[in-house]
Amino acid sequence: MSVRELVVLGTASQVPTRHRNHNGYLLRWDGEGILFDPGEGTQRQMLRAGVAAHDLNRLCVTHFHGDHSLGLAGVIQRINLDRVPHPVVAHYPRSGQHFFDRLRYATAYRETVRLVQEPVSGSGGTLAETSSYELVARKLSHPVESYGYRLVEPDGRRMLPERLAERGITGPDVGRLHREGSLRGVSLDEVSEVRRGQRFAFVMDTRLCEGVYELAEGCDMLVIESTFLDEDERLAVEHGHLTAAQAARVAAGAGVRHLVLTHFSQRYADPSEFERQARAAGFDGELTVARDLTRVPLPKRGQGQGR
Question: Is the pTM of this model over 0.90?
């Protein structure tokens, strides 16, 4: 069975704490691993979480502030040290190319793996299309150029056994009907329904902007920064961040099924207040206040969403 889960490697913003490492998030999506925003210490957090360099297929960096990118040097060197047998693709803001180059070649090491650089520019766009997902980026609003990322699984079809039985279609004929679209006068639409593809979004340092809403729309899981609590909203706007309530209102308006709050300022010791404020803002779906080294499975599909 395919695995789709978020492995949280770190949840701190700017300054790590005793209990929060700098950012780092691995999305396991079927047979691929996509590492988002590897901050300082990510390589060690991977070890603690049971994540191997061989698990990584893509690196996605939202922007080049240290808490989101200083771990790149170690992760890239580990990929090469372990001789990962497949190419690894890196996405990051093109405007930060000089930062990426410095991190990639921070020290001497032997390159054994093909690292494909595919930077993002402009307003974003489609970065990759595979049989399992489409990866897109959208520009966010932060003091340095920043992008969020979104995975969308292609829609499929779910066969309806009772309708197949009514029309006498069994065995290999089911697969033939699915492939060809019709069989003996029976159309695929008559015996199946659309299976909506799952959707995942990753939104880090940003103010509220159009890109935030576009990324969040209809997501099964939204991982989003909530650096500040409501009482510090002025600081959030000033420094280009979101509050827990703002993130929750985005999720509620976008129909998000599972909201994951993360990227917490070191000024807050009690994570339960983030959940309280998110609930007070009107989000009533699944809610996780992220903690380091936790695993969060994508929500099971509802009606019409079977895999």
Answer: yes
- The pLDDT tens digits for 116-139 are 999 999 999 999 999 999 999 999
Quickly list H helices, 89-152.
97-104
Structure tokens at 44: 């060690």
Closest CA to 179 of 188, 166, 170: 188
Nearest residue to 212 (alpha-carbon basis) of 138, 142, 302? 138
Inter-helix orientation angle 72-81/42-49, to 10°: 60
The confidence score (pLDDT) of residue 223 equals 99
How are beta strands 124-129 and 186-187 bridged, if at all?
A: unpaired
Give dist(CA 146, CA 45) in Å, integer.
24
pLDDT score of 15: 94
User: What would you report as the CA-atom Rg of the chain, rounded to the nearest whole angstrom?
Assistant: 21
Which amino acid, one-letter code, is at 83? R
Q: Which residues of the chain have pLDDT under 50?
A: 1, 303-307
CA distance 256 to 287: 10
pLDDT of the residue at 133: 97
Query: How many residues belong to the chain?
Result: 307
The CA distance from 199 to 133, in Å, is 9
List residues bridging with 115 in a β-sheet: 88
Query: Distance between CA atoms of 139 and 194, rounded to whole angstroms?
Result: 31
Q: What residue type is assigned to position 214 of the chain?
A: E
Which pair of tokens denotes residue 46? 């991977």
Q: How far apart are CA 16 and CA 4, in angstroms?
A: 27
Question: What residues are labeled active site?
Answer: 67
For residue 121, the model assigns a pLDDT of 98
Place of tokens 């991190």: 103
Q: Which of 31, 44, 23, 37 is nearest to 5 (CA)?
A: 31
